[in-house]
């Protein structure tokens, strides 16, 4: 198992560009490149490991992330690495999100009318401009301050199944599995670097199980569209650990008094088995590293699309009753 001490410290600074609803608009004729990646964004020999779709880390990634991560060895003072375009196309948008005075950006590349990909946490070359075209394999940037870059795919031939699709933007609703688009000559090498147990190396983000507790929830009575820095703390997810996908995690963005991602006991009810008929359910929230109890959560499904929930930080109890601090979340 790989530990995230360097990652955790940096991701607090780096998540701002990962969730955005600035829909890129092309300023030049639409390209017609096939949606196939023929180059790795980072030189294969420099990739330490890859994390699949679905990573969670509140509050920036309270719900499963719709992109994958390429990690590379990096320590203070190490030189940056070149970043190549996996595929050719049109630069539709460059979103600047500086980190510690480093010009990190999120860059969208449209390959055809149905297929766009983006790279995040990269420092683009000065020649890279919105409306310009690039070729596959072209060096378009360098790595940024952290030890990873993001790769996401928006494929309009893909339609994910969420309990309430209106909550999500196109990048999430039409999220493709990035490694599946690489040419066969690259797939074997890249899949071998994915740090994930089991045969499914792609991961998934549409984890909602309709009529059950499993999946994503949003603080009720607030802005309907909760993504972005103003909404991350209003999200909640009963999700999975992407490295150990059999492990269930409770991801709390905020408002419930215990922000973070937490494990639950192995004998606790599966969120996918909790329904309206289950009544109130109690979960001991465990530190993922030590499995000691950090607090207590009680939750009850009011109907298929609403839950009543309350968290008691630092509680060592096994159960409790709702009080005036209980909140309502919705699909």
Structure description:
This protein has 331 residues and is mainly beta. The protein has two domains: 5-191, Glucose Permease (Domain IIA) (Distorted Sandwich), CATH 2.70.70; 215-330, no CATH class. Helices cover 7% and strands 30% of the residues. It is built from three helices and 17 strands. It has helices spanning 5-14, 170-173, 184-191, and strands at 49-51, 68-71, 82-84, 89-96, 105-112, 115-124, 133-134, 139-143, 148-155, 215-219, 235-240, 248-252, 260-263, 281-286, 293-303, 306-313, 327-330. Strands 1, 2, 3, 4, 5, 6, 7, 8 and 9 form a nine-stranded antiparallel beta sheet that branches. Mean pLDDT is 90; it is low at 1-14.
Pattern of helices and strands: HEEEEEEEEEHHEEEEEEEE
The number of helical segments is 3
Q: Quick one: CATH superfamily of the largest domain?
A: Glucose Permease (Domain IIA)
Question: For the report, how would you describe the main beta sheet?
Answer: 9 strands, antiparallel
The SS-based structural class is mainly beta
CATH class of the largest domain: Mainly Beta
Estimate percent helicity.
under 10%
First and last CA, distance: 33 Å
Number of strands: 17
Overall 3D shape: elongated
Question: Can you tell me the CATH architecture of the largest domain?
Answer: Distorted Sandwich
Q: What is the assembly state of the chains in this entry? A: single chain
- Which residues sit in consecutive blocks of at least 5 with pLDDT less than 50? 1-14
Tell me the β content: 25-35%
CATH fold name of the largest domain: Glucose Permease (Domain IIA)
Rg: 20 Å
Average pLDDT, to the nearest integer? Answer: 90
Structural domains: how many? 2
């Amino acid at each position: 198992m790989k530990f995230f001490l360097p990652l955790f410290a940096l991701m607090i600074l780096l998540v701002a560009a990962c969730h955005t609803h600035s829909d890129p608009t092309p300023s030049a004729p639409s390209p017609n490149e096939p949606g196939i990646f023929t180059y790795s964004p980072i030189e294969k020999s420099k990739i330490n490991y890859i994390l699949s779709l679905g990573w969670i880390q509140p509050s920036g990634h309270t719900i499963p992330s719709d992109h994958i991560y390429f990690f590379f060895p990096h320590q203070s003072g190490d030189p940056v690495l070149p970043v190549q375009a996996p595929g050719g196309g049109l630069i539709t948008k460059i979103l600047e999100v500086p980190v510690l005075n480093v010009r990190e950006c999120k860059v969208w590349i449209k390959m055809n009318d149905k297929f766009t990909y983006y790279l995040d946490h990269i420092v683009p070359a000065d020649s890279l401009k919105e409306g310009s075209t690039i070729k596959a394999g072209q060096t378009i940037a360098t790595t940024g301050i952290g030890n990873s870059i993001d790769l996401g795919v928006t494929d309009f031939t893909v339609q994910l199944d969420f309990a309430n699709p209106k909550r999500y933007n196109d990048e999430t609703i039409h999220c493709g599995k990035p490694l599946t688009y690489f040419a066969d000559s690259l797939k074997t090498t890249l899949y071998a670097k994915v740090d994930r147990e089991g045969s499914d190396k792609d991961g998934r983000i549409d984890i909602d199980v309709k009529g059950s507790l499993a999946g994503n929830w949003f603080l009720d009575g607030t802005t309907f569209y909760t993504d972005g820095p103003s909404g991350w703390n209003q999200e909640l997810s009963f999700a999975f650990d992407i490295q150990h996908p059999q492990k269930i995690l409770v991801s709390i963005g905020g408002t419930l008094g215990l922000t973070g991602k937490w494990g639950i006991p192995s004998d606790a009810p599966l969120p996918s088995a909790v329904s309206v008929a289950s009544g109130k359910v109690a979960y001991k929230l465990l530190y993922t590293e030590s499995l000691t109890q950090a607090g207590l959560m009680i939750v009850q499904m009011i109907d298929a699309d609403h839950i009543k929930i309350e968290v008691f930080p630092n509680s060592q109890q096994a159960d409790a009753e709702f009080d005036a601090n209980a909140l309502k979340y919705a699909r």
